[in-house]
Amino acid sequence: SRCSDSVAIKNSPEGHRGASALQRASKVWGTVLSDTAFSPKTGVHRFVVRLDHCEKGHIFVGVATAEASTKTYVGGDRFGYGLIGTQALWHDRSKIRSDYGSAFRTSDVIIVTLDTNNGSLSFGALKESRKEEATGVDCGGNFEDWGTAFEGLPMDTKLFPAVGLYQRDDKVTLLGLVGPPSNVDCYPKSSTMPDPKLNQMITSDGLMFTLDVFVGVRKILKQAISSSKMERECLLRDPKLVHVLPSVAASICTMTKQPFSNGFYAMSLLPLLTSIAKLFEVLHHDGSTGKGAGIVDSVEGE
């Protein structure tokens, strides 16, 4: 990374994510540019910044080209585009807007999205994050999208994630840099627990609940196919089928991409999902003809 003399950089221990920037001076702007850059026309990239200490909101987050000065804030020259924690957008030492997003505070997690195909930059925050007391694991929160902040960013040069600090002891941590071809959503992870253990913990409870729902749904569908028309209509109004299944399916579809968790989910759930899909097809095409029971047996035998 490239940074101001007033800012100290500390890399996280091996096995943990992120690098931290700490302002050692008082009321002096200092900017840090990541050593990882985003090239033009390479798709959508995202990085995440946690505000470890933000006393008065005098922290900038944004992007800049390699020519940007580290002795000013992000957007303090024509090479930077930045959002300050007092809700103002800055570029070329000019305030572009003064009512964007929400005010920064300590422990906020700011998510920055750069579209290198159309030259736009947007921001958001992970809100209402909580930690489990027993493990110290960040359990996530709600993503608050603040919309497009800048358009018309340069399309002929690399752009670097950048942060600017002003108050003494203000501190931020760059938690991750993500972009094509992985296209993985990047959210903060615990700094006190290795990734495999965290993934396993997150996966276990959700998987057991999903399996329980799918087994229950399969049972209902099998009963419906083998029942009379009146009984079938009653069974198909079961809350697990009408309300719970769509919600669980939607949750699976919106899961972030994580190789361990996604693979484990797929291997565990695909057999049940295949069976349920076939039962829905049987119910739709053959349930009213009285042939359902025999077809259910053939589905189970596959």
TrEMBL record:
SUPFAM superfamilies in UniProt: Concanavalin A-like lectins/glucanases
Residues of the B30.2/SPRY domain: 1-181
Coiled coil ranges: none
InterPro entries: B30.2/SPRY (IPR001870), B30.2/SPRY_sf (IPR043136), ConA-like_dom_sf (IPR013320), FBXO45-Fsn/SPSB_families (IPR050672), SPRY_dom (IPR003877)
Highest taxon in the source lineage: Eukaryota
Name of this protein: B30.2/SPRY domain-containing protein
